[in-house]
Fold this protein.
Amino acid sequence: MLDYIPDVRRPFMLGSPHFSLPSNAVISMKKAKKRATRALLGRSMKPVRIACINYAQETISGRTMRQLTAALQKCYDKHFLPVWGYPVDLYVTGKPKPTDWQLAYFDDASHKNMLGRHELTHRGQPISKIFVKALGDEPVSVAASHELFEMVLDPMANLWADKNRNTQYAYEVCDAVEEDSFLVSGFEMSNFVYPSWFEPFRHPRGTKFDHNGTLKEPFSMTEGGYVIKKVNGERVIRVFGSPEKRRRFAKEDRRGHRSEFRDPRGVHHPGRRASKRQA
């Protein structure tokens, strides 16, 4: 993080009050301010590049993909980055670079490009996957923002937060409020919890525990949410916000979902090579 961020406005504030900026200078100033903001809020001046890949061409058009990705970037920069840091750059491509992280959209978990190991690409970079046909009535943008937020904070899905000496909660920032959303550029985006949600001590009155301001204490959840807990360092269990949520969850196709990789009993997709061997 930089110790000093220059005031990029100052050179243009000097001189005649009628001085006007050329258009390219305005653009440069905006870019400089954006870089300065990311340097302060993120842990690096250079954002992580995340390739957004559309394998779900039956359900997502190229135009929708571009609009969705732009909305996700806006949502991230305006709402998520100021809370959690970690700047990212999203871009749509069919040919990601070897160093890119990936946000990949599939029609379902049987797609030919579905990889068996969900949290890493074959080049060893983090990846999150959205299975569009399995979403039902859930907007694609809610699922995509959910996966994006959680991948950035815990790429390997292996972090846990201690509530007490016997109980840990998975470091998942959307599960507890996963059926709540807010609007960005006409797209619904997933609600997410704040760092305070993972802190097992008393907080001052008015502390926010999630972006929508619904939760009132750490490790709580909405009726449409759920949490993953590890008990005594071994047993992994899910706790649901309501019986209705438990029933809806039981009907979902969970293959390849990041939560399945936290649980030794989770449901995994075998991947292309394993599928061919079994055929």
Q: What stands out?
A: The chain has six helices and ten strands. The longest strand covers residues 48-54.
